[in-house]
Amino acid sequence: MTLRVLSICVVTDQAMLSNYAIQTANPSDFTFPNLRGKFTHQPCRIYVKRPVVQFLARRKGNLVPMTIVSAVPNESDEPERGGSHACTDDIMLSALGNDGSSKDTRKEVVGFLSHSGADISQSTEILGNPGNLLDKLKAVHLHVLAMEQWNASRLELCHRNYLLSAANLIHYLALKCLDVEQLKDDLSSIGLLNLETINPYVLASLSAGIQMLENLKSNSLNCKENVGDGISSWISLDKQRKGEFTINAMRKKASSNKESLLGPLRDERTTHIMVTVGQEATESETLINDLLKSGASIIRINCAHGNPSVWSEIIKRVKRSSRMLEKPCRVLMDLAGPKLRTGNLKAGPHMIKISPKKNASGNVIFPAQVWLSPKGAGPPPAHLSPDAVLYIDGQEFLSKLVLGNDLRFYDARGKQRLLKISEKFPVFAGVGYMAECTRTAYVQSGTELYIKGKKGKFSVGHVVDVPAVEQFSRLRVGDLLIISRDSSDEQYQSSGPAGAHRVTCSSGYLFDSVKPGDPIAFDDGKIWGIIQGTSLSEIIVSITHAGLRGTKLGSEKSINIPDSNIRFEGLTSKDLMDLDFVATHADMVGVSFIREIRDIVVLRQELEKRKLRNLGIVLKIETKGGFEKLPLMLLEAMKSPNPLGVMIARGDLAVECGWERLADLQEEILSICSAAHIPVIWATQVLESLVKSGVPTRAEITDVANGRRASCVMLNKGKHILEAVSTLDTILHSSSAKVKAELKPLVLSSHLF
Q1: Which cofactor(s) are needed, names only (predicted)?
Q2: 177, 115, 122, 168: which is closest to 145 by C-alpha?
Q3: Delimiting residues of CATH 2.40.33.10 domain(s) in the chain
Q4: Which terminal Cβ of the chain has fewer Cβ within 10 Å, N or C?
């Protein structure tokens, strides 16, 4: 029996796997296993006889020829020679040897497909017609399977829970490396197959498309003689016959992965709502309860803020509220990671400003609303929105106040001011009051409140626990900013240009990695500058972008250097300590600033060391490196059984990669994760205006609507967080069918006909 061989070759230096993320992957990242023993023949040198179907492959954004070819050895196993207009004459390809190398490093053999039969001439003739839609689709199908065969050794390392998903990810990447725009148009023109929507089930969709085209073709070849038979022994097709690679099976796998990580959804909802909380959740007896009632199903804690005692109290309240309301709620804890931040500025005075609303003429149009309650009573009820909150050391006397009482005091400037009691509310630790103030006042800790009666004044109590005023530097374009390594060095105040603003950053990574001319951003890109000079202990920055009236830069604000090659450690010493807490208290751990495969390896080692096989892992994609290596990092993470997810951290991602690319980046991340059946968390500045001011922008509403494609949408904390959660829940779970039902049908009058 004569042996026939079909091969797929890509004349390119790298295996390009997608427009963005995979362009930068090194060929060595994707394994080319030894093919010897996989087929019924030994690898041989093959001379291209004729092109079969030609596509374009992507190479660093450019398109290079990719040709699917056939070669028929003669009786003595010597290849027949021939010419090809698509390739240079007598191009010679070598199969990879035992060492995985090719004699010609500029050409890579994508895969070999063994095929035996009585006559291949008919198949070759059909495939030789580049305009044939069926044959083009078959060629893509072969290429997808070849990519899987390439990476068979990589797939074998994946945990059985992720084997199908990892294979589908490989199929998706294989499809992305081809320029199939014309094929997309051809398939769409006959309403057969949309290649844009097959990410979760690539192979099954291609197979279904081929089958439908075969059925439509009146003079089709016998299915036993087509190219599909030559690859029937491959793993994917074997699993497809067993029902493992069907569209329904792939959908179930994606749904299963989503529920394993994020938990079950209630009331036929399709998208989870995650809310970030901090210490404020421990100061309110109702906040967590109200969040869950409004629609939140996941609570997020950022380990960059707070401490284990605060985290424990938050988690205790989450679990208690979840049980009481019978609403499942999981906890995600984000490790701080090696993020660069400004240091803590020196604390300001413990003072609060109370300001009534005034018109353009300076007349008071609405008095300031001030909440008064005993010390330790927690924040005011959720439905109230006071302008200021004062805690009073004097609970017994506060309980005797009545509506209409006037509380008098002298503010920090010695000005006499008055608070008029307008409403009374029961609170956890007694009673609280809403008071009105018609004149501006500066109140500090220790301020005495009193009531003036017929027999003179008598004390009510003293104001306590007024928070320190947040310190900041207001930066304008042209200002100089000095970043110091260590705030404990008092001498740094006298060095540097006169009048320059100063902040600190304790991370040595910053000072070791930057150079003059590098751009630098602060506070998620609100402030930009250019580095003018560096030393071992200081960096001088010239501000190039800020608000018209300047932009505040305070403590614990992010620092980004997009063009530098900072080599962070994957998990910091603080992360490792926090991971021990997360392991015993949370359902998921968020890993910040993941950049490369090595970070995943370290994470897996730490999880295995602690025997954490059920802890969910959320990879936060917030850097250029993390985005470019995402497919490879997913495949590495799939070696563990832990539930897996991805968070699109759009704040740092936009700063690191450029604002204008953000939309494309998040689309690509969604596509990659869809192919890998990995749930995605849509994060950063979701409904931010609504959370902070109570009124959303139109762009925020449409952003949330786009977020429906993700498995979870995350909100950050703010004054109007409960209203934001309720609004988000309504938007995410309102169906298009309901909207259509609300539209009145168009009724045409008979005289129009």
Answers
A1: K(+)
A2: 168
A3: 474-560
A4: C
Select 256-338+568-735's CATH number: 3.30.530.20, 2.40.50.140, 3.40.190.10, 3.20.20.60.
Answer: 3.20.20.60
Residue with tokens 């995979």: 22
The DSSP line for 103-126 is SSTT-EEEEEEEEE-S--HHHHHH
Q: For the domain bounded by 474-560, which CATH number is listed?
A: 2.40.33.10
Task: Provide CB contacts within 8 A for 319, sequence distance 6+.
Answer: none
SS (H, E, C) 231-268: HCCCHHHHHHHCCCCCHHHHHHHHHHHHHHHHCCCCCC
> Scanning the structure block, which residue is given the tokens 């284990």?
308
Contact (Cβ atoms closer than 8 angstroms) between residue 696 and residue 258:
no
- Kindly tell me the burial class for residue 132, based on how many C-beta atoms sit within 10 Å of its own C-beta (0-12, 13-18, 19 or more): middle
Q: Report how far residue 76's alpha carbon sits from residue 79's, in angstroms, rounded to the nearest whole number.
A: 9
256: Cβ contacts below 8 Å, ≥ 6 apart: none
How many angstroms from the chain centroid is the CA of residue 24? Answer: 20
pLDDT, mean of each 10-residue run, the chain (753 residues): 36 35 41 34 31 48 46 37 31 29 33 31 35 82 88 92 94 89 83 85 89 72 44 48 75 94 88 94 88 95 92 95 94 90 85 92 91 80 85 78 89 93 80 91 91 71 86 92 72 60 85 89 92 90 93 90 77 91 95 90 94 95 91 95 95 88 93 96 93 92 91 93 94 68 53 47
Residues 6+ apart with CB under 8 A from 692: 718, 719, 720
